[in-house]
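As the next step, I selected for study a record pairing a protein sequence with its backbone structure tokens, which the following lines show:
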Amino acid sequence: MPNLDTGNTGFMLLASSLVMLMTPGLAFFYGGLVGRRNVLAIMIQSFVSMGWTTVIWVVVGYSLSFSGDVGGIIGNLDKAFLNGVTLDSPSPLNASIPEIVFIGYQMMFAIITPALITGAFANRVSFKAYMIFLTAWLLFVYFPFVHMVWGGGFLAQWGVRDFAGGIVVHAIAGMAALASVVYVGKRAFQDRGPHSIPLVALGTGLLWFGWYGFNAGSEFRVDSTTAVAFLNTDVAASFAAIAWLAVAWRFERRPSFLGLLTGAVAGLATITPAAGYVSPLAAVLIGIVAGVVCYAAVNLKNRLKLDDALDVWGVHAVGGLTGVVLLGIFATKAFNPGGVDGLLAGDAGFLFKQVAAAAFAAVWAFGFTYGMLWLIDRVTPVRVTSATEEMGLDSAIHGEQAYLGDAI
């Protein structure tokens, strides 16, 4: 194979495996946060994405994301069913790794992104409606943003940067979560969650571990920028966890383990767009801002009485959008010669582009998500019945229980 670098290829296979592990990690994270009657219902929404999103990715997703260009918004169908992909075809973003490895790596991103949304409408949405939603959301929100930002679309051409998914993953998933909460409404019955903080801790550990592949792997080769992205990932997550713990301890009068775990995930989401473009010191500041700002966002959501069950908007939308903006401030070529300079390095224009892209992504994701939920409701009810919600989705929809004999 021409120009194949076995070291880069091996690293990207490992990174792909790490990102794959994040989806089961998310399932455990969300599963621990809900009550006992809805554990399997929330977990299957993550696991089914591993199957169904893969099907869609192979059939049209990869092609729509990375093949051709239609209006700067979406790709074409030239590589539908992976047409033309051979052992010798190089990755479109780094010719030293095979295209088949790139396809697998990007597929793992496609799998976890819609699964993030499910925490917002936990215990309320039917499985049939979710499957339709999963399909439509990938086609009309996720694939277009992959193309616009990473596939050579108009945002990439304009100069917008997103190292590993602040816009493409967290911002659009978090804003879709907010639209889902607004459309679906509040839960009718009090959920006695989190039912297992140890499960949440396990999920956090798997997410944190997998995030090294998520961020460092987005350099698509092994070099010093890869190492910077790896270090920045851990630094931001750690500082955000401690910042959230400290703020929560100050206002809630107790050190919360759940708060520490949530803060870490907020830090991971916030550093994602900037991981390979900023210095470790900037990652420290980004982590602290993430812990404080995302904590404030969750409290604002509570005051507004929005039933975002598992705080997807406060952690992922606010974290991702904050990271995109902070990238516009802290980006420096000193830590990525192939990157950009932000506001502090003398380029105020780049900050403007990042802010504009963040706003565009937020509006698109919210509007398209709300609209498709309305359309799905015309086909099949999105929300489960009160009787189903009261019984719990595990038994009522799936005929299974996480804990046998448990009526809680």
The chain has one domain: 6-214+223-398. DSSP finds 14 helices and no strands in the chain. The chain has a mean pLDDT of 95. The CA atoms of residues 28 and 203 lie 5 Å apart.
